Amino acid sequence: MVSDPEECIDCGNCVEACPADAIHPEDELPAGLAPALEWNARLAAELPMATTRVVPLADAEQWQGRPGKWGTLPAGLAPGAPVVPHPAGP
Question: Where does the record place the region Disordered (predicted)?
């Protein structure tokens, strides 16, 4: 899940609602998460807006707080990675 910085009104509701404590106000973002700002903005334009509560994936707890998890993403998808253009649709 990502948050669209163009749509965000900084109300803090998503920060409080996130069970994994994975959402931070931009001015309180831990230094290690700084690369996620660009990543979040880029993906927000590509993904649908979350409008309902989603059941966490079965393995969600094993990923919560796991160091180095960005490195498990496919090349070009991790925060701070060079942008890899998506292939054209059908």
Answer: 64-90
CA angle, residues 36, 78, 63, in degrees to nearest 5: 85
Instruction: Kindly state the tokens that stand for 7.
Output: 């749509």
Report CA-CA distances (Å) from 62 to 26, 58, 67, 78, 79: 25, 9, 11, 18, 20
How many other C-beta atoms can be found within 10 angstroms of the C-beta atom of residue 37?
14
Check residue 73 and give its pLDDT: 82
Q: How many CB atoms sit inside 10 A of residue 23's CB?
A: 17
Global model pTM greater than 0.70: no
- CA separation, residue 13 to residues 1, 16, 28, 65, 78 (Å): 15, 5, 15, 21, 26
Using alpha carbons only, give the angle 25, 46, 90 rounded to the nearest 5 degrees: 170
